[in-house]
Amino acid sequence: MMTPPLLFLAFLLLSCLPGSLCRVTTVGDLSILEGRSVMIPCHYEPQYTSYVKYWCRGRVKDLCTSLARSDAPRGPAAPGEDKVAIFDDPVQQVFTVTMTDLQEEETGWYWCGVEVGGVWSADVTASLHINVIHGMSVVNSVLSGEEGTSVTAQCLYSQGYRYDWRSPL
């Protein structure tokens, strides 16, 4: 039988300590044009390949609202329910979250998480802020060309402006 000090030492060796290889990483904060889609990669360590992965929204991870889980049954989605999808690739140790048709009200904090569970271990997570922009943007704000030739500026706009030819914003 293990003595309490040895049991504590074993717990320390088997648990995830800050700065160790027990983490999830993702991209930095994002700005997305309203009506567009985004794919977010969430990378995890090899020991988590068989664990449940999830995507949730909220400023605080412990209070976030679950939007997708890797253990959720896949079937025909009702209209509006297929806006968020999660795909886990254990070989590459990454799960990818796809959010479609983003709207301005979906601006907020989101979390990639691996459900570790248990009394002694917290889920491993990474957060990012998504800012959904209503309006227009340009792909490249610096254009160049030779005198007498044409240049093309690619402008992206929110779905709300699709049929509005008079509004410059």
- CATH architecture term of the domain at 20-134: Sandwich
* Strand adjacency order, main sheet: 2-9-8-4-5
| Number of H- or I-type helical stretches | 1
Order of helices and strands: HEEEEEEEEEEE
Count the strands?
11
- Structural class, please? mainly beta
| Name of the CATH class of the domain at 20-134 | Mainly Beta
C-alpha termini separation: 72 Å
Low-confidence regions: 6-15
Proportion in β-strands: 35-45%
CATH-defined superfamily of the domain at 20-134? Immunoglobulins
CATH fold naming of the domain at 20-134: Immunoglobulin-like
Largest sheet: 5 strands, mixed
| Average pLDDT | 80
Helix content: under 10%
Structural Rg: 22 Å
Give me the secondary-structure topology.
Elements: H1 4-14, E1 24-26, E2 30-33, E3 38-44, E4 52-57, E5 65-69, E6 84-89, E7 94-99, E8 108-115, E9 124-133, E10 136-138, E11 155-157
Parallel strand pairs: 2-9
Antiparallel strand pairs: 1-3, 3-7, 4-5, 4-8, 6-7, 8-9, 10-11
Describe the model.
This protein is mainly beta and 169 residues long. The protein has a domain at 20-134: Immunoglobulin-like, CATH 2.60.40.10. The protein has one helix at residues 4-14; strands at 24-26, 30-33, 38-44, 52-57, 65-69, 84-89, 94-99, 108-115, 124-133, 136-138, 155-157. A hairpin with a 4-residue loop joins β6 (84-89) and β7 (94-99). The longest helix is centred in the N-terminal third of the chain and has 11 residues, at 4-14. Residues 6-15 have low confidence and may be disordered.
